[in-house]
């Protein structure tokens, strides 16, 4: 099972989602993350994201930002998008229905259709990063349960 988390810059939300989900699924699951922009390509996650993860004993410091590619849509089984702009951008890269079916909004797993987006903490403070961590932690628990139920 291959799971891809996607946000805009791949330095705040999706690296946290990758790090969190990795703690909840077996090692034979491949979990990765990417961004829809290449502006931060090659960079480690934002220092505030690294610190927030470390506060929860998760090390995301070695991750590097990379932009999503069309090959990712073929390679991964599930692609979770952090907000609606990201979702629309990723969907626009899909070349067939099978690829489109893999792509969803992360917040759908929490059944929250009013707050459909994982808020972008980039312009915020440490409280915003912690809030995002809590949202991602809840969502990743549900994703892990769902994947383990359907793929064991
Ligand atoms: P992310 O946050 O999409 O959660 O990684 C952002 C990172 C960078 C920018 C915006 C959001 N930026 O404008 O550079």
TrEMBL record:
Q: What is its EC number?
A: 3.1.3.48
Q: Does the keyword Ribosomal protein apply?
A: no
Taxonomy, superkingdom: Bacteria
In terms of SUPFAM superfamilies, this protein maps to: Phosphotyrosine protein phosphatases I (SSF52788)
Q: Does the keyword Transmembrane helix apply?
A: no
* Active site, per annotation: 7, 13, 120
GO molecular function ontology, one term from the record = protein tyrosine phosphatase activity
Recite the UniProt keywords alphabetically.
Answer: Hydrolase, Protein phosphatase
What Pfam families does the annotation carry?
LMWPc (PF01451)
Domain Phosphotyrosine protein phosphatase I, by residue range, is 1-146
Which family does this protein fall into?
Answer: Belongs to the low molecular weight phosphotyrosine protein phosphatase family.
Q: Which PANTHER family match?
A: LOW MOLECULAR WEIGHT PHOSPHOTYROSINE PROTEIN PHOSPHATASE, LOW MOLECULAR WEIGHT PROTEIN TYROSINE PHOSPHATASE
What this protein is called in its record is: protein-tyrosine-phosphatase
Organism phylogeny: Bacteria, Pseudomonadati, Bacteroidota, Flavobacteriia, Flavobacteriales
